[in-house]
């Protein structure tokens, strides 16, 4: 079964608006990662947040982690058309495996 | 070129044929992974490897075989392709356990 599940499955917003995607997971983790996938391409790593961190920023990206609720959110501020992609969360429990969710498809309208 | 490359990018094969998808990375990362991506399922882990000659099953290993005789290569073989193995396959590598993964561009495999 999937460890991480993203919500919503799809999101459509106007350029300049903020986009928020959520990820829930089931078991304890060492870290949680967010990836972006443009259509027809491989996944690209965006940000990694460790279990002892609550918030992390990278440019227009803000990630939060709530281990008590087993959830994370990815906020993209001032979105651009180029942000149109699928976004995946992935969890690692300290072993070799990284398990991915089904992803959120983000469409940013110009 | 530095990075992780997959070949071929596209492949059409017939049911019952053996197919090998190649993955090569230039970083000497210890960990390598094979995922398949299907609509509605996201990415599912097929096999992974922690080092040369060390491999283990992921979530959906049936019908697949891997080997890792050299650190930089991690081929995935479909022993007898089935239509249900039509998918996009991604290879990834990591330098260590809890670090970011680097993905190849993917191989789109169609089994007819």
Write up this protein.
The complex is a heterodimer of chains A (110) and B (112). Chain A contains no helices and 11 strands. With 110 residues, chain A is mostly beta strands. In chain A, strands 2, 4, 5, 9, 10 and 11 form a 6-stranded mixed sheet that branches. In chain A, strands 1-3-8-7-6 form a 5-stranded antiparallel sheet, with no helix packed on it. In chain A, β9 (85-92) and β10 form a beta hairpin. Chain A is globular. Helices cover 0% and strands 52% of the residues of chain B. Chain B has no helices and 11 strands. In chain B, strands 2, 4, 5, 6, 9, 10 and 11 form a 7-stranded mixed sheet that branches. A 4-stranded antiparallel sheet of chain B has the order 1-3-8-7, with no helix packed on it. In chain B, β9 and β10 (102-103) form a beta hairpin. Chain A binds chain B through residues 2, 30-31, 33, 35, 40-45, 48, 50, 88, 90, 92, 94-103, and chain B through 31, 33, 35, 40-45, 48, 50, 56, 58-59, 90, 92, 94, 97-106.
Task: Describe this protein with a few key phrases.
heterodimer; A: 110 residues; Immunoglobulin-like; 5-stranded antiparallel β-sheet; globular; B: mainly beta; 52% strand
The named CATH superfamily of chain A: Immunoglobulins
Describe the biggest sheet of chain A? 6 strands, mixed
CATH topology of chain A: Immunoglobulin-like
**What is the CATH homologous superfamily assignment of chain B?**
Immunoglobulins
| Cα separation of the termini of chain A | 37 Å
CATH architecture identity of chain A: Sandwich
Work out the helicity level of chain A. Answer: under 10%
Note the run of SSEs of chain A as H and E: EEEEEEEEEEE
Question: Tell me, what's the shape of chain B?
Answer: globular
Query: In what range is the share of β-strand residues of chain B?
Result: over 45%
Query: Rg of chain B, please?
Result: 13 Å
Give the second-level CATH assignment, the architecture of chain B: Sandwich
Major beta-sheet overview of chain B? 7 strands, mixed
Low-pLDDT residue intervals, each spanning 5 or more residues of chain B: none
How much of the polypeptide of chain A forms β-strand, as a percent range?
over 45%
Q: What's the CATH C level of chain B? A: Mainly Beta
Helix content of chain B: under 10%
Domain count of chain B: 1
